[in-house]
Request: fold
Amino acid sequence: MASSKNLVIVESPAKAKTLKKFLGSSYKIEATMGHVRDLPKSELGIDIENDFEPKYITIRGKGETLAKLRREIKTADKIYLATDPDREGEAISWHLLYALKLNDKKDKVRRITFNEITKTAVKRSIKEARDIDMDLVDAQQARRALDRIVGYKISPFLWKKVKKGLSAGRVQSVALKLICDRAEEIDNFIPDEYWSIEAALKTSKGKKLKAKLTKKDGKNIEIKNKEEADEALKALSEKDFIVKEVKKGTRAKNPAPPFTTSTMQQEASKILNFSAQKTMSIAQQLYEGVSIKGEGTVGLVSYIRTDSVRVADEAYAETRAFIGTEYGEKYICERREYKSRAGAQDAHEAIRPTLVTRKPSMIKDSLSNDQFKLYKMIWERFVSSQLPRAVYDICSVKIDCGDYRLNAGGSRLSFDGYLLVYKKYEEKKPEEEIPECVQGETLKLEKLIPEQHFTQPPARYTEALLIKTLEEIGVGRPSTYAPTISTITARNYVTKENKLFYPTELGEVVNEILKNNFGDIVNVDFTAKMEEQLDEVEEGKHEWKQILRDFYPHFEELLDEAMEKQSDVSVKEEETDIICDNCGRNMVIKFGKYGKFLACPGFPECRNTKPYYEDSGVKCPKCGGKVYIKKSKKGRKFYGCEHNPECDFISWNKPTGGLCPVCGSPLVEKKTKKTACSSPECGYTEEVKEES
Reply:
């Protein structure tokens, strides 16, 4: 008698390949390549008149995949739906039930989930197989329907009032509003002048220290202008500096918790310069499985969409044993329990390596450069989260000078603790030398250092700060941050320069229109409250269609009013100095599916278009023309002369505009903060001079 056959259905071939390692020959594993059913793109797809019933269709191109799955189902005794362990994954499994007509075979269909793709987790998931969780499915349906209604109703309004190709959405509109509000805050900011005064002092033993002026007559001092600074300087120059108090002690610094989706995206943006989208793409590869020499295909990290900092008992025990073996007994401490933020879902653990003994250095050769960087950061963050606190020796000195009080201080790392593993990611602040002086000692004044300052406006949003803010205000969820940022960038609502987001003129216009007409829908409080209701659907406390019944009538009123009262708005396209070859007009920058391109403003009479290349800001070292930033077919950035093909200058590295003093080849910038000769035969390099 033939052994029973089990069919396991996952979303991706990479995940399928990893699972094959852990399941025997009685299991057949197939991939759906993502969703198989969805709302149609050509229409709203939500029957508002029929109690918001969604109209799902089979996604174009999925016919062959579904046909193959149906053939496999015929000979399968058990069918396991093993899509991702979240709302989206649960919905994919539910859609498979319908697309594969499995409703009448529910006795042989089971849902399995695992937080990590390891043999133990996969085997356990089959033992704990369950029915599809309809609360999770309904939470996904509610979010999908809500986003579809907002997007498909407001977008045509924007096309009519502004221009074609625009879009709006619950979360993306809040993100855009944050960036626009911050830009307005910065524009309206009026700086205030203030001064600081430091005293360079010397002890009786010749040791130097710097003290900062903090108080006058026992009250905190604020020096607002030069006159007040001069008054303080005069008084300080006429009196002795006497040590009033010396305090010595220790200060401890705790490690950060292991990564959630949000904190991983933030750190990858700050440390690795990865976009949120790139981080999630690489993290997905690490989760689904990578081919490792000597091991085969293995999942390297636990599930990557989570807002919990919880760590499973087995993972903690494994980590504690590893720390003792790898770093010694003094680095073993009491178990660290971290508190997840309010409103966080606890369905999944924090992001961690599936096997802590699989050190990054051991598998470096099996990973791409980007995979290695992200895995290393995840591994080191997790291990450091279970290490002891770092301890610093500190010393603070209070110094009196007449009516004035100055403070000096310093610190020295006495026990590295978690910094043993994570120091390279911490903000790099030089250690302050601990001042050596005694109470009652008179210090010699070497000089007074007055410095004028001006208050600074709030910082513009980076990807990291935007994600952090969205999470703090309760807008969006781990899976939404990356697509939200990608959308507002692709729509040309914002632009990014040196990691900072700036709203474009188009972004400001769209934000103003949405704020004026749909203020109730795109504001922070409404969107955060809606996220809470979606979470309640997932918890079985709220019926999903009731959210739409409550939302839609008011939304429809706002839409009707907006159509009536909002006048048309014209947004002028950015003109370039590039002349149209056909009609002589100055070409303008437009935005398409694949980003920027040049188009003739004479459309439809003149339909000429050209690729758009960003000016790198340097001159071609060969002919003096502009050097453009271009992209290869694989998306890799390179630099090329505007006069190509007449001028053949091309480089993967940014040219400096200068020539090598040794061989005369163009000089280029290297990531190592060096300037180097572009000729591989030459080898000339020089350090980049820091601007003072």
Notes: The mean pLDDT is 91.
